[in-house]
Amino acid sequence: MARQSCFRVALLIPLCGSAGIWAPSCISSAQVAVEELNRQAGIDGRKVQLIMIDAAVEAAEPIEEIINDLIDMGAIDAIVGMHISAIRQRLSKVVRQRVPYIYTPLYEGGETTTGLFAIGETPQEQLGPAITRLQDIYKPRKWALIGNDYVWPRSSHSYAKSHLKSFDVDVVMESYVPFGLSSMKPVVEALDASGADAVLVSLVGQDAVNFNRMFGRMGMHKSMIRLSCAMEENGLMACGAGNLERLFAVSSYFGAVATEANAAFKERYHALHGDFAPALNALGQSTYEGLHYLASLLHDHGDLWRVSSTRDGLPVRYSSGRTLLGGDGNARPSVYLARADGMQFCDFKLL
């Protein structure tokens, strides 16, 4: 097969459904990476071209079939995926080391599929330190755990329950809901009746927005704090300022974090997209990282990706909006606990 003139990356992001709220920032951040790579040598000496593919669980076409066909036809050279773990698990059985697959968001950990590199934070890195900080400050005695019904919330909650045992506190409610639940009112009413004074919210995109709106409408913030690992700036704005009191988020990236690396990244982002670009956030920024990770992986290690995986900790040094990461293969980003203030995050605590 003739070598193609462009290096084509399938950018897998949710374009519809509960997680579709993340799409604009994911696309915009990836475009910054493409512009930077193409000003230099691209990837593998070729200009980078993005192919957008809907990776929402609600998408009309099965993503496994789409990706398998594209790989069979030689139509893509790599995958960068910012989607939920359920999609990653389905695709890992299809890709089979035929192209490198970079998975960018926070996830539940434990990914060992050869040829697949999960670069996001795990519950041990994010959730554990955040729970510890909130326990130290607010000392809640009863926690509730609410999430969508798939692997990341269930695995994260399993970790949370184990971590909370060390504080001798009770988990009084654990609930999982389908994507796109028509009304969050019964869920929030059950939460109110549980007597919890803290809730871990592992809902995705618009489902998290709908939950927080109902939570605020019912005045639940007066008796309960909220913690989320996946609430980002777009979701925050969609919730509305009046529904965000005592909401905390933990992440390795926030658009407002005052670091030199983020200031430089924001300057490049707005230079390309203008002042009214989609709000920067952790999930969007991760696609920027994913493309740079892919480029560095192939440049530094050639075809070694075919016999390696996340667990091997290859030394990949790549550009990020957070810092220059991965010098020894084991470097991990800083993690912050932030508080919602109006429709923005503030009061960043390094964990």
TrEMBL record:
<keyword id="KW-0732">Signal</keyword>
<feature type="signal peptide">
    <location>
        <begin position="1"/>
        <end position="19"/>
    </location>
</feature>
<feature type="domain" description="Leucine-binding protein">
    <location>
        <begin position="8"/>
        <end position="304"/>
    </location>
</feature>
<protein>
    <submittedName>
        <fullName>Regulatory protein</fullName>
    </submittedName>
</protein>
<comment type="similarity">
    <text>Belongs to the leucine-binding protein family.</text>
</comment>
<dbReference type="InterPro" id="IPR028082">
    <property type="entry name" value="Peripla_BP_I"/>
</dbReference>
<dbReference type="InterPro" id="IPR028081">
    <property type="entry name" value="Leu-bd"/>
</dbReference>
<dbReference type="Pfam" id="PF13458">
    <property type="entry name" value="Peripla_BP_6"/>
</dbReference>
